């Protein structure tokens, strides 16, 4: 029996990067996966599109459908869970992965920059969770996984690269800290309904195609780069286990459970929590 057989999962921000990898891994475990992004097919091949992500899963024999919504816009996200639920049935697992950053020094992030990040990184995941909870409660349980970031925490001193760190950890890190805190509160509220709420962040950095702003840090500090498969494996563990309220990092979770990291199609063991990636993020 596959780990996600019979499950219906919505992954936001699934057209590329970490969200797409998680969607592939969960689909390989038998889930019916609804992938969402702000648009279906306009990016071009460099970054990947939602349509390509859905096709990739289907070509591998998985069940996938797409739904679009610009999560920055409350009016577009207000019915996302109900639209997603029409495709394979009620959503029992919500993975809030979509996020955005404005790389501004903290002293220079404008109100518009901050509003953009709080809307997409904090208000959207909370709104989606609130839309999904009634049906999860009615069905006797569910999983909500929020993807956050190590930038939510104070970086260790001395900074490896103080200017870049300041850019990366500024207002963006504050939104992720807010989501971490909200996650724990929601987890406490919902545990009595068997709904497990978690936050998961890459232990360091995953060099997704869009993560150009951290590629230089990765080049100078290869030990900080982790393969996207690590996040997919950790997400699978949190969405199938009972880790109420755990706010954790990918490598830490894989290490603490003694788990193995698999390829995204689930067929090969690639290594354990110490698995390394090259500068492109590939194993
Ligand atoms: N990569 C890292 O090293 C790293 C480190 C720490 C935390 N994270 C977190 O991991 C998650 C994924 O990161 P990533 O590097 O994989 O990101 P990414 O490659 O930039 O992908 C972001 C995804 O979110 C979607 N998205 C962006 N804006 C959206 C909007 N307004 N409405 C709906 N969807 C939107 C994008 O699709 P469209 O543009 O087509 O809408 C895309 O599918 C994020 O929560 C990020 O904060 C990543």
Provide a compact summary of the structure.
By secondary structure, this protein is of the alpha/beta class. 43% of the residues lie in helices and 15% in strands. It has helices at 17-28, 50-59, 74-77, 80-88, 111-138, 162-169, 171-190, 212-220, 228-240, 250-257; strands at 8-12, 32-37, 63-68, 93-96, 142-147, 195-201, 247-249, 261-262, 269-271.
What do these coordinates show?
There is one protein chain. With 283 residues, the chain is of the alpha/beta class. It has a single domain (8-271), classed as Rossmann fold (3-Layer(aba) Sandwich). The chain has helices spanning 17-28, 50-59, 74-77, 80-88, 111-138, 162-169, 171-190, 212-220, 228-240, 250-257; strands spanning 8-12, 32-37, 63-68, 93-96, 142-147, 195-201, 247-249, 261-262, 269-271. The chain is globular and about 50 Å long. The protein binds NADP nicotinamide-adenine-dinucleotide phosphate (NAP).
CATH H level, superfamily name: NAD(P)-binding Rossmann-like Domain
Main sheet overview: 7 strands, parallel
| Rg over CA atoms | 18 Å
Report the principal-axis shape: globular
Strand content: 5-15%
The CATH C-level name is Alpha Beta
Strand order of the largest sheet: 3-2-1-4-5-6-7
- CATH architecture classification name: 3-Layer(aba) Sandwich
Average of per-residue pLDDT values:
91
Helix content: 40-55%
Write down the domain tally.
1
Structure summary, number of beta strands: 9
> What is the H-and-E element order?
EHEHEHHEHEHHEHHEHEE
Distance between the termini: 27 Å
What compounds sit in this structure? NADP nicotinamide-adenine-dinucleotide phosphate
Question: Number of helical runs?
Answer: 10
CATH fold label: Rossmann fold
By helix and strand content, what is the structural category? Answer: alpha/beta
Low-confidence region ranges: none
């Amino acid at each position: 029996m596959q780990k996600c057989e019979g499950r219906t999962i919505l992954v936001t921000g699934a057209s590329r990067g970490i969200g797409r990898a998680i969607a592939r891994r969960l689909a390989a475990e038998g889930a019916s996966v609804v992938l969402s992004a702000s648009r279906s097919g306009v990016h071009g091949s460099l970054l990947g599109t939602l349509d390509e992500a859905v096709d990739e899963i289907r070509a591998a024999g998985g069940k996938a459908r797409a739904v679009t919504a610009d999560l920055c816009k409350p009016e577009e996200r207000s019915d996302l869970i109900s639209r997603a639920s029409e495709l394979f049935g009620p959503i029992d697992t919500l993975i809030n992965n979509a996020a955005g950053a404005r790389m501004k020094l903290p002293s220079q992030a404008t109100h518009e920059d901050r509003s953009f990040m709080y809307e997409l990184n904090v208000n959207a995941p909370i709104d989606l969770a609130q839309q999904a909870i009634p049906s999860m409660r009615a069905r006797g349980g569910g999983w909500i996984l929020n993807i956050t970031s190590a930038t939510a925490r104070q970086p260790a001193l001395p900074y490896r690269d103080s200017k870049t760190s300041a850019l990366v950890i500024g207002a963006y890190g504050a939104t992720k800290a807010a989501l971490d805190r909200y996650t724990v509160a929601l987890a406490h509220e919902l545990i009595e309904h068997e709904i497990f709420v978690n936050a998961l962040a890459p232990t360091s950095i995953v060099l997704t195609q869009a993560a150009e702003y951290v590629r230089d840090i990765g080049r100078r500090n290869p030990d900080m780069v982790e393969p996207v498969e690590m996040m997919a494996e950790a997400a699978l563990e949190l969405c199938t286990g009972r880790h109420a309220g755990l706010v954790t990092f990918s490598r830490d979770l894989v290490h603490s459970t003694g788990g193995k990291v698999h390829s995204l199609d689930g067929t090969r063991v690639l290594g354990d929590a110490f698995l390394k990636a090259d500068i492109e993020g590939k194993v």
